[in-house]
Amino acid sequence: MSTIKAVRGTRDLLPPETELWNRVEGVARKVFERYGFGEIRTPLFETTELFVRGVGEETDVVSKEMYTWEDRARAASEKAQSLTLRPENTAGVVRAYIEHKMDAAGGLRKLFYIGPQFRRERPQRGRYRQFWQIGAEVLGPVSSGAESAVRDAEVLEMLASLLDELGVKGWRLEVNSVGSSTDRPRYVAALRAALEPVKDQMCEDNRRRAETNPLRVLDSKAPEDQEIINGLPKIADYLDEASKEHFAQVLKALDACGVAYHVNPRLVRGLDYYTRTTFEFTVPDGSGLGTQNALLGGGRYDGLSEMLGGPKAPGIGFAIGEDRLILILQEQAAEQAESKMDAYIAPVGVEQNAAALALARELRRDGLRVEVGDGSFRLKKSFEAADKVAKAVVILGEDEVASGNLKVKRFATGEQRDVSRTELGAYLHGDQ
Ligand code: AMP
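Above: the input record for the complex with adenosine monophosphate. Below: its predicted structure, written as tokens.
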């Protein structure tokens, strides 16, 4: 008999990998708590109408990727209805916000979720049909300040802190503004007009998008279409004064917090509900995600609550692709395991062992990876041991301990020089 396998695009998560999933979720929960977020758990399936109205009928997610079925009535009191496995969680959170009258208290609501989402996409590394998202939403009545650029900057700063805390290296924040609900249609009209004479020269996908959802053309990575896309109108030229000012405030706050960002005028994102700020955090190519280098995405959705029949409740949120986050952390850990330590401290005699440990502690606290030798070794043996495991060796004899001037040799270049103890950290980090 043939064996039964997991459905294409879905997978089992097994120990020990699940430990990493739990660690990541634990760090996320702690960070969310520090910023005042509470957990929300919404159903895995909702009415199809929620996503059609919330996410948008013409989006790829709704038009092509949803798991939708007609749910039969089981009793005369029930109606047959179209249901859908949630492809994302923002629409569900906003539905719950409206349903439970969370606006009644008048304040800002900060909600986070962790859970699976479902999209019928072409499976590949970092892209699955059941995948996990860690996300959060900040929303409330206008009087709560939910529209303020402070909220956007706070969410972005929180994400930067979360990625740093998880140890994700080399992330890059890309931001843009897609304007208000009146700016966007003006821009889409301009885009449509600009695409009209050139769309026949584009690939089939973009030809279709030019008709159905021209914003999606900007997302396209098709190499043959890049020249045309770069020449299309930019949304920044279509923003009204209020949206421009809002975006400027977000960037100013990010500058003040020291969060680095890149403005990407093509970042419009695939879902219809976005207004004003949109963003993505990416990781460098070669981080183990292949072409799926978007680690998380999000933005502001000031009209979503009204689109779902609720009160005015501007908001901003994001979703991290947890599967991708885990892949990156695994890849980076494997690279680290293969790479050499930053330094090997070689005490010249046993009398310097304690000083060597003290120096190692100092350097490790500075973020360096450090190994310590033993003063009972002959110097030659220390050098050999150091060369195997570290990029540099630091010699620690009686004179060096007394003077604070240390001899350092870099194995890659063979360069040997005296470095003062105060400058040693920077030298080993490669800053000098
Ligand atoms: P979106 O909801 O499309 O804005 O996606 C937010 C994040 O979820 C993306 O940046 C990805 O990291 C992740 N994501 C989206 N679709 C998938 C998928 N099919 N498989 C794995 N991760 C996904």
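Notes for the reader.
The chain has two domains: 17-180+239-332, 343-429.
The longest helix spans residues 17-34.
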